[in-house]
Design brief:
Layout: E1 9-12, H1 31-42, E2 49-52, H2 59-62, H3 68-79, H4 101-120, E3 126-129, H5 150-160, E4 166-170, H6 177-182, E5 189-196, E6 220-225, H7 231-249, E7 253-257, H8 275-292, E8 297-300, H9 311-323, H10 335-345, H11 373-385
GO molecular function: histone deacetylase activity
GO biological process, one term: epigenetic regulation of gene expression
Domain Histone deacetylase: 26-320
């Protein structure tokens, strides 16, 4: 018996999404997305996901979150990528110019808007844009490898089509500053970001005191984590803050960003998660969506710069969880995929879908340790935000 489309999940993807390419020496190599999709295909994950093609955002859609002046400059530089404009963050070391960057960026934004449409209209149960999650782009400026903010485009699509309560959960090692900034004055959108402390990592924002603008207090939640935080600490922080807030806010839909640069092998950050801990975070977001929103969940990718050892495995797990058929962490990576990695990158690929870690943690209810930087950070967030949502920070 054929499963109805509305009971299935979708991945919005086509090969053009990997045209977002800052060049061979840039950390955000598009091969990470290609290898993710090939690994997911060989593991049978894509058998349980409908692949839906992406369409570019219109300039009008982009202008709902970006200034018309910025879009015009991106269009111009996209056609003539020879004159840097650092005033809008383009032509910098983080965001080099490349021909067709408007088209590549607007396609990623369109893919997130399509994922939003698929879930909000009930055409699909869940949806994911693994090439998305470009959460640093600001209304009038590129930032942190991000030209257009596809996550914000997707959230704005939901608001324009009737959503009144949206939760955005960002688990990237970097603060989700662009998404927060775009909805900082909007009480309909609750942004939650768990990230490495702004004292030690770009973009230098995301303190627990950032709680939303006047009239939207409590609509921004930030949990800055000490460098060196591993699976147990990260999961302790997540479960001490996120579930209670999401339940109290009672959203209609969850949008999430799953940058996997929190991994211990990532070259750009200082967190120490394993693939197993990251997988546990994906399951936690899935479980919240199932509990609170009736399963309405839109997921995106994000950062991740260990492009062989981490990103494909982490996001293949994410794809499988979105599909409803999660992978066994003990499964071996396919031999053909490992051979392709060696051919493309000249280095051996991981042999299994696990790092061999156990994603266990001590619950917040078991006690607060004021001598712990992690616990002080968790407590600061709870103290700042919980009362604004009618929650007791002590329990």
């Amino acid at each position: 018996m054929t499963q109805p489309e509305s009971d299935r999940a979708a991945v919005v993807f086509d090969e053009r999404l990997t045209d977002y390419d800052f060049g061979p020496s840039h950390p955000m190599a598009p091969v990470r997305v290609k290898l993710t999709m090939r690994l997911a295909e060989e593991l049978g994950v894509l058998d349980h996901l409908d692949i839906v093609g992406a369409s570019s955002c219109t300039e009008d859609q982009l202008a709902e979150v970006h200034t018309p002046q910025y879009i015009e400059k991106v269009l111009k530089l996209s056609k003539h990528p020879t004159h840097a404009d650092p005033s809008i963050g383009l032509g910098t070391e983080d965001n080099p110019l490349f021909a067709g960057m408007h088209e590549a960026s607007s396609l990623i934004a369109g893919a997130s808007a399509e994922a939003a449409r698929l879930v909000w209209t009930g055409e699909r149960r869940r949806a994911i844009n693994v090439s998305g999650g470009l959460h640093h782009a600001m209304p009038g400026r590129a930032s942190g490898f991000c030209i257009y903010n596809d996550v914000a485009v997707g959230i704005r699509w939901l608001l324009d089509h009737g959503a009144t309560k949206i939760v955005y959960i960002d688990v990237d090692a970097h603060h989700g500053d662009g998404v927060q900034a775009m909805f900082y004055h909007d009480p309909r959108v609750l942004t939650i970001s768990l990230h490495e402390s702004p004292q030690t990592l770009f973009p230098g924002t995301g303190y627990s005191t950032e709680i939303g603008a006047k009239g939207a207090e409590g609509s921004a939640v930030n949990v800055p984590l000490p460098p060196g935080t591993s699976d147990a600490g990260w999961l302790r922080a997540f479960h001490a803050v996120v579930p209670a807030i999401v339940r109290e806010f009672d959203p209609e839909i969850i949008v999430s960003q799953h940058g996997c640069d929190s991994h211990m092998d990532d070259p750009l950050t200082n967190l120490m998660l394993s693939v197993d801990g990251q997988r546990a975070s994906y399951l936690a977001v899935r479980d919240l969506a199932d509990e609170v929103t009736g399963g309405k969940w839109i997921a995106t990718g994000g950062g991740g710069y260990a492009v062989i050892d981490v990103v494909p495995r982490a996001w293949a797990h994410l794809l499988s969880i979105v599909s409803g058929r999660e992978l066994d962490p003990q499964v071996a990576t396919p031999e053909h995929w490992r051979a392709e990695v060696e051919r493309l990158r000249g280095q051996p690929a991981p042999a299994r879908m696990t790092d061999g870690r156990r994603a266990a943690f001590r619950a917040w209810e078991e006690g607060y340790d004021p001598a712990s930087w992690l616990d002080r950070s968790i407590n600061a967030t709870r103290t700042e935000v919980f009362p604004l949502l009618g929650l007791d920070p002590l329990y």
